[in-house]
Write a structure and sequence with these properties.
This protein is α+β, with helices and mostly antiparallel strands and 303 residues long. The protein has 2 domains: 10-134 and 288-293, Diaminopimelate Epimerase, Chain A, domain 1 (Roll), CATH 3.10.310; 143-276, Roll (Diaminopimelate Epimerase, Chain A, domain 1), CATH 3.10.310.10. It is 17% helix and 36% strand. The protein contains 5 helices and 18 strands. The chain has helices spanning 10-16, 48-55, 94-107, 180-188, 228-240, and strands at 21-27, 30-36, 65-71, 78-84, 89-90, 115-119, 122-129, 132-136, 143-144, 155-163, 165-172, 199-205, 211-217, 222-224, 248-252, 258-265, 278-283, 287-293. It has an 18-stranded mixed sheet that branches. A hairpin with a 4-residue loop joins strand 4 (78-84) and strand 5 (89-90). Helix 1 (10-16) crosses helix 2 (48-55).
Length: 303
């Protein structure tokens, strides 16, 4: 009996991706390299060094993350695997799920009128309406209306919501004026958020009932131009504090594009210790920027 093949190193895996087709997509500036698992030919790309290589904006394709989509098993239509730019796996990414919905409809993996997608945070339903994808997320029940973190004089209230992934949300006078790069890292790892930390969002009110928000994302370890789960967490907390009026919350991303969060009461009982349970729908962009074929990827060993 012959010995099993030795597992590929990250560098060998990166080189094996040569010739692989990919789709570059954006969700309001939150950009992804999307791979169809049927094209991977059994190649395992999950090594953090390989993901980081693909996402490298100088020596790779460049993206905030990598998404792998594949046919699901009934009653699920599509399975999504999402990886942050640093190679860590993410349970859920709202914009990646919007992009996956749009692409799955194009590929025939799911119906544009409605599909079920399996994510690391559970099954979500989604559809494409008028050319725009929207997703119905799992009910948001883990909501804390106060978190003991240090704030600036023009900030507050501050809260927490788990939207598949954890988010800290801080209301401020002017989100555009926040020193996000300086303040984000410490807050993202604050002891009050537990060992996994959380994404950090700042939000301020705009005219006509709209809101401006910015997100420091873990796994990217910097600001992204949009964050879908951050938009949902922000909308949930604004509604819980009574700051957002009505079921629909319109939020402006750092790309200048808007995302919409529709909040409905969750059908099941509210979890103990939570102010309210919401059933959110996220509506936003899921646009193909270009389609290409991977040439030569080399693992970057630069310190």
């Amino acid at each position: 009996m012959s010995a099993p093949d030795a597992p590929r190193t990250a560098a060998e895996t990166a080189r094996a991706l040569s010739g692989l087709p990919f789709v570059k997509m954006t969700g309001s500036g939150n950009d992804f390299v999307v791979l169809d698992a049927r094209d991977l030919r059994g190649t395992d790309i999950t090594a953090p060094e390989v993901i980081a290589c693909i996402c490298n904006r100088n020596n790779g394709i460049g993206a905030d993350g990598v998404v792998v989509i594949e046919p699901g098993t009934a009653p699920v239509d599509v399975r999504i695997r999402y990886f942050n730019r640093d190679g860590t796996a993410g349970d859920l990414c709202g914009n990646a799920t919007l992009c996956s919905t749009a692409l799955s409809a194009q590929l025939g993996l799911g119906a544009a009128s409605g599909m079920r997608l399996a994510t690391g945070a559970g099954v979500v339903t989604s559809r494409v309406t008028g050319g725009v994808p929207e997703i119905d997320l799992q009910p948001v029940r883990d909501v804390r209306l106060g978190v003991p973190v240090a704030l600036e004089v023009d900030e507050g209230p501050v809260g927490y919501a788990m939207v598949g992934v954890p988010h800290l949300v801080i209301v401020c006078r002017d989100a555009d004026g926040v020193g996000l790069a300086a303040r984000g890292p410490a807050l993202r790892c604050h002891d009050a958020l537990g060992p996994a930390g959380a994404n950090v969002n700042w939000v301020s009110v705009l005219p006509n009932g709209r809101w401006r928000y910015r997100t420091f994302e873990r796994g990217v370890e910097g600001e992204t131009l949009a964050c879908g789960t951050g938009a949902v967490a922000t909308a949930v907390l604004l509604a819980s504090w009574g700051l957002a009026v009505g079921p629909q919350v319109l939020l402006q991303t750092s790309s200048g594009r808007d995302v919409t969060v529709l909040l409905r009461p969750a059908l099941s009982d509210v979890a103990e210790g939570s102010s309210e349970a919401f059933q959110p729908t996220l509506r936003g962009e899921g646009r193909v920027v270009f389609r290409g074929t991977i040439g030569t990827l080399e693992i970057d060993h630069t310190p």
